[in-house]
């Protein structure tokens, strides 16, 4: 692993991560307000990319034009790739989602799937089934050297633009009137309405903002990769949703964190040796062992010491971890073996199985240390992350545990 | 007299016909259909459409268990179909020089799909409905991508070709029957290789599936599913083992999909990952929604309409075929949105879903709902 390779891979991962973040923000904002997965969001993203590329073609932008004119054209493309998706988001919300508010959860999701199919087919009908391509510009291929690695300028631009947009979004949500209305609506729609907030307008605004962000994402993708296919939105949408769930859905900083983690995972997964990846698994294993042998028994001991039936002289049992590690382990092994059972024997077995699984994975990875995962498996990585997260920690990295409303 | 009053009169007339009469009429229509081909009234192409439609009827009946009865959205349903199809294809094709017996493979395909269902269901059923939908979607994509990427096993995008036609009895048994003087015309039917034979084979499966499901619907398990769908918290409080009931629905529906996949592999002779796209899952979901979630006749109708009608239109479209393919999906999308907004209970709705959608009399609805939770005594008042 040379340093320049690591730098290249990291920047690549951050770049796709930022793009996922822009799309994931739309998912997470809508989920935060309506508790509903806007399945058509990925298609809105595609529309943004198509509109941007189409605008640039219509303007006939090329390197022969003056720099100012090129920048002007790009800005115009940006405006269009914000305006069209935003209008689309507004329309979708009004036509397909608003009539379904208050129905069972499955209905809006179905409607969203329908909308996403309609949008995809409309893209094919309007722009044709061939992928839309970006006019070749100097900025597309320009690169700089960082730490011996050649980095595309565009990657840095994408990271910078995304950071600026996210800062703007944070300001919008935290410090403006409409942001306050959004937060209130997401907390309790009925109460917000009683406080005089126009929830319908707020929800529409949420859709507009989310769709605009997705549109910008589309523009950046089409510039970065040079082309975009009509069904790209499905995969990007799903990955962005994964990112949103990973970070804790409904949580705006969470979406960004999740997206970066996903982008880095995906890029590292296919571009470094398995031997290198194994160390990440080892880190996971250490965490798992920590949970099994320290955190979970601690919780059990805490429970025991607070139990009314526990005699007084045993109440200090929870303090065992204040002892030196050796003494703590000896005490646990000799006197309180039951504490190692975690909250329940079932839970302990589950933890143990998880750790065994991680160990086996690490060993397998080390044995095949010099091999690499084929790029064909890249989408599988994202889906696997999604499934594992939803199974084991549906609340996500930064999310709170979701309470079922009664 | 406006259109709506005409419709109302028609509906009243239709409601006066008893349910079993509709069932008998549908059954005999489907049973007679291939004979029309023999009589030369129907082209063989239509018969093929019929076979595929019936396979999709099976699929949507299976999905209906999860979606209509238990109220869980499964967006990766086609993955179970794929698992079943590939199990059969790999064990009965020149790929590995294997030819396992038909019945064994049928059972094995269903079993493998059920194990896949268990694998996906066990850890995910704690999740809320919409999360479950996404997990199943991811599972479906993982299965498809794995099939595409594992080229040494599945030939990747090229697919498995030359799947042997099913023999209802082993070759040895057929030979000995022949030796003992059974007529050739009868023995010919033991090797299924013509559309009409496939049609009746699938037809028998569909009838069995529909029968089993309609019985299941009124059983204890079926009522538990409905109760969970209506109000999970209340259902759990009334002593329904939520996880087990949900798992059962997922596994059962996976098994039916695996069965359908096995038959599909035999019938189509060639299978490739292209047949198991996410869109196919959506189409099956569409069939269930269009027909009416939870309603068996509705689901059958939905599957036939969505599978056969596009074929019919495509045949008549002639030169405009490729354009039609695009518009077909567009219409599907619009159809889903329109159905969900304007007629969420589907074309031939289940009693409970219809009441829920229109809520003509809240007390009626409450009564039907109550009967769900009354697991022991409610048998009589929820009829299908």
Question: Shape of chain B, please?
Answer: globular
Oligomeric status: heterodimer
Strand order, largest beta sheet of chain A: 1-4
- In whole angstroms, the N-to-C terminal distance of chain A is 53 Å
Report the uncertain regions of chain B.
375-384
Enumerate how many helices of chain B there are, as a single number: 18
Summarize the main sheet of chain A: 2 strands, antiparallel
As a percent range, the share of strand residues of chain B is: under 5%
Shape of chain A: globular
**Helix share of residues of chain A?**
over 70%
Biggest beta sheet attributes of chain B: none
Question: SSE order of chain A in H/E notation?
Answer: HHHHEHEEHHHHEHHHHHH
CA-based gyration radius of chain B: 22 Å
Low-pLDDT runs of 5+ residues of chain A are 401-406
> Which structural category fits the helices and strands of chain A?
mainly alpha
Kindly name the structural category of chain B: mainly alpha
DSSP, total strands of chain A? 4
Radius of gyration of chain A: 25 Å
Number of distinct helices of chain A: 15
């Amino acid at each position: 692993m040379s340093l320049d390779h690591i730098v290249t891979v990291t920047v690549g991962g951050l770049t796709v991560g930022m793009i996922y973040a822009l799309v994931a923000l739309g998912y997470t904002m809508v989920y935060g307000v309506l508790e509903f997965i806007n399945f058509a969001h990925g298609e809105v993203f595609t529309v943004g990319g198509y509109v941007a590329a189409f605008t640039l073609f219509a303007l006939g932008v090329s390197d022969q034009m003056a720099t100012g004119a090129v920048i002007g054209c790009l800005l115009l493309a940006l405006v269009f790739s914000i305006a069209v998706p935003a209008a689309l988001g507004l329309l979708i919300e009004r036509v397909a989602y608003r009539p379904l508010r208050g129905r069972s959860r499955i209905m809006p999701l179905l409607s969203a799937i329908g909308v996403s199919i309609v949008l995809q087919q409309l893209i094919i009908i309007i722009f044709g089934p061939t992928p839309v391509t970006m006019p070749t510009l100097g900025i597309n291929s320009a690169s700089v050297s960082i730490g011996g690695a050649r980095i595309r300028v565009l990657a840095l631009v994408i990271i910078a633009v995304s950071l600026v947009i996210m800062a703007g979004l944070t300001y919008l949500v935290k410090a403006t009137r409409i942001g306050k209305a959004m937060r209130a609506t997401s907390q309790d729609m009925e109460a917000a309405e009683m406080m005089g907030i126009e929830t319908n307008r707020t929800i529409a605004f949420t859709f507009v903002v989310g769709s605009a962000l997705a549109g910008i994402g589309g523009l950046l993708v089409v510039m970065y990769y040079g082309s975009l296919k009509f069904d790209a939105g499905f995969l990007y949408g799903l990955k962005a949703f994964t990112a949103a769930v990973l970070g804790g859905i409904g949580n705006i900083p969470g979406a960004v964190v999740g997206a970066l983690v996903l982008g880095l995972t995906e890029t590292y997964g296919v571009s470094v040796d398995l031997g290198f990846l194994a160390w990440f698994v080892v880190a996971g294993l250490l965490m798992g062992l920590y949970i099994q042998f320290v955190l979970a028994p601690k919780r059990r001991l805490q429970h025991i010491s607070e139990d009314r039936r526990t005699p007084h002289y045993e109440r200090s049992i929870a303090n065992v971890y204040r002892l030196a590690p050796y003494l703590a382990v000896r005490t646990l092994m000799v006197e309180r073996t039951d504490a190692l059972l975690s909250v329940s024997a079932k839970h302990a077995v589950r933890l143990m199985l998880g750790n065994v699984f991680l160990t086996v994975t690490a060993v397998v990875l080390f044995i095949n240390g010099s091999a690499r995962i084929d790029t064909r498996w890249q989408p599988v990585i994202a889906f696997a992350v999604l499934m594992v997260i939803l199974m084991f920690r549906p609340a996500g990295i930064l999310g709170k545990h979701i309470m079922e409303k009664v | 007299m406006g259109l709506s009053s005409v419709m109302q009169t028609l509906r009243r007339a239709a409601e006066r016909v008893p349910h079993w009469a509709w069932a008998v009429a549908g059954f005999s229509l489907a049973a007679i259909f291939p004979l029309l081909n023999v009589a030369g009234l129907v082209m063989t192409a239509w018969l093929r459409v019929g076979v595929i439609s019936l396979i999709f009827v099976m699929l949507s009946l299976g999905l209906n268990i999860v979606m209509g009865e238990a109220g869980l959205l499964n967006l990766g349903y086609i993955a179970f179909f794929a698992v079943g199809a590939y199990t059969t294809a790999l064990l009965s094709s020149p790929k590995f020089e294997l030819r396992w017996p038909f019945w064994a493979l049928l059972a094995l395909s269903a079993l493998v799909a059920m194990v896949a269902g268990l694998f996906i269901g066990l850890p995910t059923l704690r999740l809320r409905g919409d999360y479950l939908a996404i997990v199943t979607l991811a599972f479906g994509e993982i299965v498809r991508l794995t099939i595409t990427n594992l080229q040494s096993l599945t030939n990747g995008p090229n697919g498995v070709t030359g799947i042997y036609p099913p023999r209802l009895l082993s070759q040895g048994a057929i030979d000995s029957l022949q030796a003992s003087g059974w007529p050739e015309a009868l023995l010919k039917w033991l090797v299924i290789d013509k559309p009409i034979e496939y049609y009746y084979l699938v037809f028998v499966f569909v009838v069995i599936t529909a029968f089993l499901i309609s019985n299941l619907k009124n059983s204890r398990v079926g009522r538990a599913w409905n109760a969970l769908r209506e109000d999970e918290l209340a259902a759990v409080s009334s002593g329904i083992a939520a996880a087990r009931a949900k798992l059962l629905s997922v596994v059962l529906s996976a098994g039916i999909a695996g069965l359908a996949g096995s038959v599909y592999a035999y019938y189509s002779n060639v299978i490739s990952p292209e047949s198991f796209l996410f869109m196919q899952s959506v189409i099956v979901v569409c069939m269930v929604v269009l027909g009416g979630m939870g309603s068996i006749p509705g689901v059958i109708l939905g599957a036939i309409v969505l599978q056969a009608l596009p074929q019919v239109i495509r045949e008549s479209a002639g030169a405009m075929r490729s354009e039609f393919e695009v518009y077909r999906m567009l219409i599907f999308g619009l159809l889903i949105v329109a159905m969900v907004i304007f007629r969420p209970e589907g074309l031939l709705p289940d009693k409970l879903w219809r009441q829920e959608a229109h809520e003509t009399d809240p007390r009626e609805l409450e009564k039907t709902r109550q009967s769900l939770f009354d697991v022991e005594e409610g048998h009589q008042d929820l009829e299908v």
